[in-house]
Amino acid sequence: VSRQLEEEIRRGFAGLEDPLAGLLDVLESSGDWKGKGHSLGYCIITELQLWIKENPAVQQSGMKLKKLQARVLRILAQCPANLLDPLISIYQLHTADRNYLLGHISHLYHKGDYKEAAILSIKLKLQPDQDVEKMCTPLLLQDKTNLVEDYVGEYPELQSKLLQILDTWCEPGFNIRDITRQYQGLSRYKPDKFNRRTLSKLVFRLLDRFNVDPALCPNVINQRHLRTLNYLFYKRFVEKTMTQENWADHIQSTVGENRLLQGHLMQLLISYCDLSTAARWAQRCNLPKEMLPCGVADELQKLQIQERVEEAAKAESYDESKKKDYYQLPIPRANIHFLQTWEETLQCWEKVLQPGQVVGIDMEWRPSFGMVGKPRVSLLQIALKDEVFLLDLPRLLEQTETESEKAKLPHFIQKLYSDAAITKLGYGMSGDLKSLTATWSALKDTDKQAQGVVDLLKVDKQVDVLSPEQSYEDGGFRQPEKGLSLLVQHVLRKPLNKTEQLSNWEKRPLREEQILYAASDAYCLLEIYEKLCKDPASFGLSSDLTESLVGKPSIKPRAKKQLNKQEVPSPSGQQCAGSRTETSCAPAPISPKEFSVVCDNMLQGLGRYLRCLGVDVRMLENEDDHRKAAEIARQEGRVILTSGLPYQTLQSQVAEGRCFSVNCSEKAKEQALQVLKHFNVQVSLADIFSRCQ
Asked: Where would one find the signal peptide in this protein (predicted)?
């Protein structure tokens, strides 16, 4: 049928004196072609386009063509997108008088057909002769940002103009309603989509897409920096998870010499700290007296240089007492090598690229805090059994002059990742490789070629671990461990000290704390891997760890090992299937008064719930060692309730059936039901709250 239709259409064209005028007669007298998809009109138009190429003599010119162009322009505004290009080509609209075309677009615009005017402008490439603000504003109000991006897509000058306009709308004193008021009757107007926050996001997306200098948008950049300042104060003074050194580095780089940001910094310092700290920062930023808030100027006069130096030294001194609480590098400081020249890297390559070698790999980059662009890797850490190499990538890149020199490091990295004889250990390796690719485009296919890779993030998802609970140290709150630090805590018994994680890794020289942190991040991977390989069963892993985990980083992680809903872990570590009979599995029923337990410190919620049901409960404190539960159980004849790794240790210290592993991912109520069912504890109404005051 399709072939017959094409032949019929072609015979029709051949029989017309003027096929171009004939097509317009058909389109003007019928509405069929206005629908989306391959309508009859679409078939006729596309077939005519092909027929004209075979019969160029039918093309018109001069006054006759101008009349045809005037007719087709009236039709174009109603055209579906798939007909625009064929009609523009057939009627040679690219040769039409430019002013005439602009006048037609203006007519559409004033009729309120903003979308149609923009699409036709793009097709006819009229943007350089139009007012970008006038054309794009109604589209933004209608939430047609994709069309706006297409409108300026091929014109860098218009991209810059648009970004400057959007940035002006984000000025603190600017009233966006002044813009929206001009378009009160606009159809499909979405005022909720048109606000300073949305505009800010759009600006950053366009800056990134068009690779425009962010300096063109000072208002949006300042607002992002203001949010960064607020975030840094939250991390330092509310969460208390950022060291003084890191915090000060980021504050300095964020504020720079910007007076607006410096003024905001003063207000935050007064709110979170004191006048003395604000005064020190005022001196550091060299703020003029007229900018200083009340009281800061007076405090600034009182400060003496020596006092400031002593205060800074006191604040920046490394707290030795906390060392014992965190993972420590087991190799001497002299075995950590900071490499900044190509000659120095040669010894690294020779040692790393050895068959059978096992290496821990990590990377560091300066936190972006939501700014434009991908992070650039500043430090590449490679750990071997006896030493760690820290490669200063920015410095090494600076030294490359020829193309062959530029290829040296990417070649080494590709060789390392593609060599199946070298085991590479990482944590979240796919994310690291993406950042490395953003630093060197030559490394874009490294993840696809990688062999012999063990991503411990994927291992982490399979390891049976404790639930991260809040812990208290010296009476103060410490954030729960997460990520690699949590895995290190579970496997090596101490967490990583992550206070240097948000360091400014581009600043040189690196501080000693940064060097030790970077080396630890890579080296701990070796120790984790060694321990998991020696005793995988203790961590809920398959016996042949190497065979099941060494592969490409693109392999999807297996789901965490979970108990079947029909199974519960028995005190001996074996599983009792839910299908077996109660008589063969369950002990004789007892009342809550007869049931005495000691709850490990990750199950305090369960302990409180059981106590409400009348169970005799003792709970370990946060700072107690898990082994204390075994002592209490033996002395007082209690059953131990615990979870994860401690279960492996505690069950061997008490009689069989006197240690029970609880699913830590469930809520206290579900945990309690699991315990009561397993030990066949029968709760009556009189038992509830019987132990509560």
From this structure: none
Looking at the fold, whether 360 and 230 belong to one and the same domain comes out as no
Kindly state whether residues 440 and 488 are assigned to the same domain.
yes
* 570 band by pLDDT with thresholds 50, 70 and 90: very low
> What are the pLDDT digits (tens) for 77-135?
888 888 888 899 888 999 999 999 999 999 999 988 899 999 999 999 999 999 999 99
In contact, 230 and 369? CB cutoff 8 Å: no
Q: What tokens appear for 328 in the block?
A: 């420590």
What CATH number does residue 429 fall under? 3.30.420.10
CA distance readout (Å), 25 to 7, 19, 36, 41, 428 = 20, 10, 20, 12, 64
Q: Answer whether residue 68 is part of any domain.
A: no
Determine contact, residues 242/499, Cβ cutoff 8 Å: yes
Beta strands in 353-433 (DSSP E): 358-365, 377-383, 388-392, 423-426
Tell whether the model's pLDDT for residue 496 goes beyond 50: yes
Output the CA–CA distances (angstroms, integers) from residue 113 to 37, 147, 196, in the order listed.
Answer: 22, 14, 26
203: amino acid identity, one letter: V
- Is 33 within a domain? no
Q: Name the domain count of the chain.
A: 3
The C-alpha torsion from 439 through 445 and 447 to 451, rounded to 10°, is -130
CA dist., res. 407 & res. 411, Å (int): 6
Same domain, 361 and 496: yes
> Among the listed ranges 49-58, 265-274, 342-351, which one has the minimum average pLDDT value?
49-58
In tens, the pLDDT along 142-201 reads 889 999 999 999 999 999 999 999 999 988 888 877 887 777 677 777 766 777 888 898
Q: What is the pTM of this model?
A: 0.51
- One domain for residues 405 and 528: yes
List, in sequence order, every residue forming a beta bridge with 380; answer none if it has no partner. Answer: 363, 391
Assess if residue 198 is contained within a domain: no
Secondary structure (DSSP) of 93-114 = GGGS-HHHHHHHHHHHHHTT-H
* Euclidean distance between CA atoms 657 and 115, whole angstroms: 74
Q: What CATH number is given to the structural domain containing 614?
A: 3.40.50
Does 493 lie in the same domain as 603? no
Q: pLDDT tens across 215-272, in order?
A: 999 999 999 999 999 999 999 999 999 999 999 999 999 999 999 999 999 999 999 9
Give the range of the structural domain holding residue 248, as residue numbers without chain letter.
220-302
Inter-CA distances, 372 with 164, 204, 220, 367, Å: 16, 6, 12, 12
Most distant pair of Cα atoms in the chain: their distance: 110
| Pick from 321, 445, 341: nearest CA to 393 | 341
Are both 296 and 345 inside the same structural domain?
no
